[in-house]
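agent> fetching stored inputs for the sulfopyruvate docking request
agent> found them:
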Amino acid sequence: MQMGRSLKEFDMQTQKKQSVAANGHHHHVASGAADKLRSQISSNHELSFLMEAHDGLSGAIAERAGFKGLWASGLSISCSLGYRDANEASWTQLVDVVERMVDSTDLPVLVDGDSGFGNFNNARLLARKLQQRGAAGVALEDKGFPKMNSFVGDRHPLADTGEFSGRLRAVKDAVGDDLVLVARIEALIAGHGMDEALARAHAYAEAGADAILIHSRKSAADEILGFAAAWQNRLPVVIVPTKYYRTPVSAYREAGISTVIWANHSMRAAIAGMREICGRIIAEESIAGIEGEVATLDEVFGLLRYGELAAAEERYLPQHHGNGHAKA
Ligand code: SPV
Ligand code: MG
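agent> prediction call returned; pasting tokens
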């Protein structure tokens, strides 16, 4: 309908307008973020990389390092909240963390939506709220609720293909192109083999997914590369080489894989760093020895753009009011 279309176009124009967040970041809200992520995931020529982040700080650090997109990892976000990656954190807690990541960077964020927190209805609600908070995409895996992390134990019952396809269609109908939809296949994780993985990939493409995430827990990349060879890029392929970490990325370029997710390494680096520093401080009863091994406070202030706040104070804060930390 003509009327419907022009209203939608008007809506998209509005959403694409730049807004300036309170911290001075310029954001392309909503569909702008999805467009950025889609161009990375859909690029046929270039292998893209998404770096794990689990809060505003880890997002900002990944951006500083030069990454062009973030993976809001369910495992890492759960871990940083003190939860297990078994849907112990609620969908609202996830959405809140994603909002902090979106606000602290200019990068598109692909959110690990687990299995969608329930059926089609929970999945489309999650997708809509993520889109409203500025996420660029959501990855949904074909398991039930609650899910369990793919590397824990051997019980990974798959969702019925038709039911999961309905979850994907409901998400597409709710958010359209304003959120990239990545369908994640757990068939190899669950031990169902390549034919099942490929059948599911076809079904999820038919249901409207924008990309396929094929997951594997093997220590070599052979089943991922086998999938890519058979799939022939009917949709872009996203991989998570956490277990087959020795494979060089040149193998993925040759296989035509679109996107590599480094899924949990900032979280694991944080654990190693905090474990080391806590051990040293308790043993030495001093912080003198480790001062040179932790980030400087200047780095902290730089990452969180304290300079922007000082400049804003010059512009907005009447000098005679003072604020307790302005120059004398
Ligand atoms: C995550 O980072 O939460 C993932 C990837 O889903 S994995 O832990 O490999 O399942
Ligand atoms: Mg996960």
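agent> quick read of the result: Residues 272-321 form one domain.
agent> awaiting further instructions
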